[in-house]
Design goal:
The protein is of the alpha/beta class. The protein has 2 domains: about 140 residues, Response regulator (Rossmann fold), CATH 3.40.50.2300; about 130 residues, Rossmann fold (3-Layer(aba) Sandwich). The protein is built from 11 helices and 12 strands. The strands form 2 sheets. Strands 2-1-3-4-5-11 form a 6-stranded parallel beta sheet, with helices on both faces. The longest helix has 20 residues.
Length: about 325
Amino acid sequence: MKAIGRLVLLVSVAVTLCALIGCSRHDNSERYILVTVNSKLPYWQTAATGMSKAAAQYGVKYDVRGPESWDPQAEVTEFRNVVGLKPAGILVSVADTGLMQPEIDKAIDQGIPVITIDADAPASRRLYFIGTDNLKAGRLGGDRVVSKLHGKGNVVFYSMPQTNLEERLKGYKDVFADHPEIKIVEVFNIRGDAGNAFDRTTHYLTDKTAPKVDAFVCLEASAGKDVAEAVRRQNVHDRLIVAMDADEATLNLVKEGVIDATVAQKPYTMAYYGLKALDDVHHYPVDLKKDWAGNSFSPFPAFVETGVSLIDKVNVDQWLQQKSEAQGK
């Protein structure tokens, strides 16, 4: 009985020590890295907050890397550098699927789990995609444009040649197909520079030979503020602006009424969930070279949808409060 008593005491002490010092499957040598383009955008700073939260919970390291501009080749170079560091896992938002697909496949061949977030490379051997249903996002914005224009008007889009943005555009077009009096004047490539959106908006507002544009729609995170500034400078009050995503400046412009609405994704959730998903693969490894996508008994989903919302004057204060709380302000 004394031996049993001593055993119970030892177990109790061990449990207490674990509670005090944090026994877990993790250790602080584990490192998870997110690779993206336009890495200094508020969108990616929000994602970094999500990664930071998950990393702190698990006691692991994290990093966000990639070019500060929209430079797909530089993103590939950074991804290669990250693979060379042999991290426990990589999250990547893919700017150019053709360039990034072989790099993802090489990382998988080296035993490094890769999950795409925000922008996918579906033909690659990444484990799965975490992010927005971009068709749904486009349809949500399309419904707003149709409602505000009463089914009639000219629309200009601001975009870039990226798969997720093309899917959003398709979502808008799906909605517009039932409203033939809504015309798409142009899909303008901002080339990763929101200043180009400012210049193009100014062109439509000041060039008397240009067609009147009733709605300016942004398919990516950075252009909304610059489009709004161009409209404000020309003292124009009868144009609809629908932005993308929920950085603080965009939300404040929604609150002011300069931007009518913005279609918001969840970059915090993508990165938070993404780090935890990679950690799970790291600690409970599977054969990464196996074709899990075509396997009915795969341990991985094909797609984890993080959700999308429309923010306007009705709910913008709630979103601002949520952002402040998440950032610990």
